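Quick one - first record:
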Amino acid sequence: MGSSRRLLAAAGILIAAGGLAAALGRFSHAPMPDEADLANPQRNAEPAAYDVLGRAAAAPEPGAVRIDDALFRRGREAFYRETFGNEVFLTDVMGMLDGALSLYEVSRALTLLAGRGTANLEVRVARPVTVAGRTYQVGELIPTGLDVARGSLFPLGIRTFYDRGHVRMGITCALCHAAFDPGTGKVVEGAPNRDLNVGLMMALASNTTAYYMHGSTPSLDPFRTDPNRTVATRGGGRERLPDPEALEAAAKVQAASWPPGSFDSSPDLVTNPTSIPSSFTADGHPYGWSGHAGLGPFRGLSALNNNVHALNSDTTAQAEAAPFLFGLDPEVYLGTLLQRAPSPSFRFDPQDGRTPSQVLKATDPTPDAPGLNSYAVLPSFPNANYVTTNGLVATSPGEPVGYANDAMSAFQNALRAPFRPAPPEILATGRQVFERAGCAGCHSGPAYTDHRVIPAPEIGTEPSRARSFARTEATLRPPDLYAAGTPFPVPAGTVTLPVPLTDAARAQVQLAWAQAGTPGGYKVPNLIGLAESAPYLHDGGVAVGPGPAHAPGIGPLLDPAAGADPAESLRALVDRDLRAKVIAANRADPRAATARVTGEGHAYWADAPGGVAPAEQAALVQYLLSLDGPAR
């Protein structure tokens, strides 16, 4: 069938679906692959029957989460389909479909696949958008890095909503943590989407400003140039808003600098994206590159899952924390986010007489909670408490507080990376080199991590991400959570449970959060699934390109069609000469400099000057690439 006939067929399907939608009023869909379509259907065994605020237990206690098949099934479903309502922020406030990318062009690109599947959906530009002096022209193909499974008409990790004539798109965990493998034609659950070009897609949105606090814009003052654009503050005064066009242009530059396969999850007014991690999480605690998610259910994994939706997929929820996080009045903060909102019902106009919070409240789908997503609110809100970065717990209506986060934790802990076979004699040699070179000194235990957070100056990597939660220290609250099974909405008068925090754990979490006078740090990562997760280190800076050239640095990877070579990138991690070339290439790349991607640090070598022969180094690399799950 020719492309025109395929488009006509797809148009007929869409028209029929549109008629059904008009009749029903609302519907949504997110793809979830069948087990037969997985490259890694094998699972880890769950060692405990209950999780009690991060402690394994054989019997129920206060705060216990029962680990069973029902929890696992809900976890897998939530991983692929749960948005917690972020489609409203992404569509109506950020305008992901109102900039260079449009619903029509995304649908067209999906239709033209004709069921083939892809690791990089290319979408035509619908409207010209200028980023950092470059204009993306109508018809130009954008490499989004969105993955589409074979036979699907929807990208992995995208949930599409039809709501009485309005289409929205929300994101789920699978967007970043599941990948289509063109080699096998199957989906790798838990693998990071290494070419997901989320920074560029956000830069091409109509209101990138809604995410400006994740970029290097330490002050709005240089943008407050129009004395007529003001907003009433909570204190009864008036303050200028930033010029919307100037701030938008600056925000686009910062977002577009993120390399494919990375994401800036910290609203710290600094551009410092981190490489998307895998979800092969069993025995890998603490979580997050800095180790900030180390307390609470599933040894901090539920805190990490919650952070994505309570902090990263709805920036309007940070309004009450704006005074101590950004030095801004909440109305100034919200006005900044909403003055370019593509949806008229969410757009703030300084001349219409309402405050930004009143504009938000009038259309908020969750009027009883901060922001737009679905949240249970802890008494500590809007302050952090070492379990939740802002006192919010993303929760789906109709189930207990935090249940989906805990369920996803159980599911992720069951995931194993695809088996990558190698000759036994090579693996044996590689293991010997691993021991001899001292790698096992930190990378020990079932998942090849000793669970420590190491000070940033000691590990030597770029330090800004390690300090991203430092601003929360002045308002920090003791860690607590609602008990497992607490109904949502939370009944009035419901008390929370304190989350245990020993002195040893406190020292580590303070280092992870760059508090108590510490410089911040990075956790010792587990080594499961390295074949799926190149490039390496927290900034993704240890990168070597594919093909015979094996060009060093992230430059060759800025086109998402070219992923890093896992074996050569791992070699750069342990070979000082190759690493020097990688670092030099990164320093020479302006985009890497903007994103603070260096590839520096972790100066632990297994190379010729360290007494490791080239064949031994190659065996070490093969051994590392073979690690597919916790050793038992």
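second record:
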Amino acid sequence: MLTKKASIFTTEWTDAKLKVGHVVLFISVVCISLIAISAWGIFNSLEYHLHDKETEMSNLSKTLSSNIEATLTQADSVLLGAKEHLESEGSNVDNLKKLEELLKSQQKRLPQIHGFFVYDEQGDWLLNSNGSIPVGANNSDRDYFIYHRDHADPGPYLGPSIRSRSTNDWIMTVSRRINHPDGSFAGVAIATIYLNYFLGLYDGVDMGENGIINLATSDGHIIVRKPFHESEVGLNISKGEVFALLKPDVNSGTATIKSFVDGVERVIGFRRVNGYPLVVIAAFDRNEILADWRSESFGSLVISAILLLILSLIGYRLAKLIKKQIQAQRELQKSQKKYIEANKTLKSMALEDGLTGIANRRHFDLFLEAEISRKKRKPNDTTLIIIDIDFFKLYNDHYGHVQGDECLKSVAAIIKSHVNRSGDLAARYGGEEFAIILTNTDYIGAFLLAEKIRIDLEKNKIEHIKSPLGVVTISIGISALSEGDFSISKSLIDTADKALYIAKANGKNRTVISN
């Protein structure tokens, strides 16, 4: 009997030690895994921060490039008209007077313009849109005058940044050559643009404490740089790393490089200005990006350390309570049973969105998976429409979240009124996004329905003074699973999202079908 009890005791003790070993091994594996996951997360976070900033700088340089192109094109269009007028009508007093009035009216319309000027073949002033001509004023020594005098090129010429002799403002010049009827040099028509205008474009851009925005010529001379320092105007940066990347066949790009001007390492995006020999460079200080990353990483490390401590305490506690393991297992079984019951309860939760009264995201996901499975058995056209309310954040900020909820309800009601077939589903996809799944419907049918919804909402005229149209509008993207296409739901959603993104990027309040 004692031997049997001893044998039982020994077996239990052996099992207990084995279980303790398993507990220690498990806790060790979990701790090591947690450390590995934390390290992997921190590394990926760094890559994400840098890549995200590269994308941001690329988008910023693209936007600024477009703005600068538009600014220069406006000025050059006026110059071209002035040049043609002078070449056809001549530069007598009456014609110059008429042209001066025209240029003054154009100057009032274009805030970037410092002034319009016309000089004869000797460089003497013939016209000044800013007022009277200074006595003896002559600009034959200016770079743009010398260029046009020595080159028959009829196109525009962008001169270096200079100080205006009439107002002392920093300006850049856009000029065109004027010819006599025989093609000989007759003078120069010039538009001067405030450098402060470009700095004003940059003011609304958050570049951190040490970021820069640089507009330079294609041969590497600075036109204007934010932050602005007069000593940097005209500085040659062609030996810098940016221009090493800017090959003749390269129009844009991103990189992490050290600045040629101040030696600061920055994440940059650069882009040529279409139609002009200029380059826009937007750069964010890499140390500032790393500062944000370090702050997040520190928080992650603190949380991981706390979790490791908790896991260690749990392991120690488990080892001490090994004798109660059987009871703990029973409790665990009860907990598992409760967990299973809770899971079943969660699965049976209502599939309706509490705010709008239409299907919620869970219902949407289940319905879409079921539709794809059904399509595999019985091929037919299935289309997905994703709808996003335009400028909804601005709507919430201006009218408040209560009114924002009312707006969501109104949009949902309009959608629901148009989606009334038994085989279709309208759902709130999340936030201000809605989704519609249409069965037995191709691209054309989906497009017609989407346009009905969009037009119906616009006719409802829900006030939105922060929107360009003054009313609430929506942008719509459409994708489809055609016959024989059994793509997964993520592919279908991603395709519709891309179409929605195009609708947003091209002015909003429109419907785009994926290609």
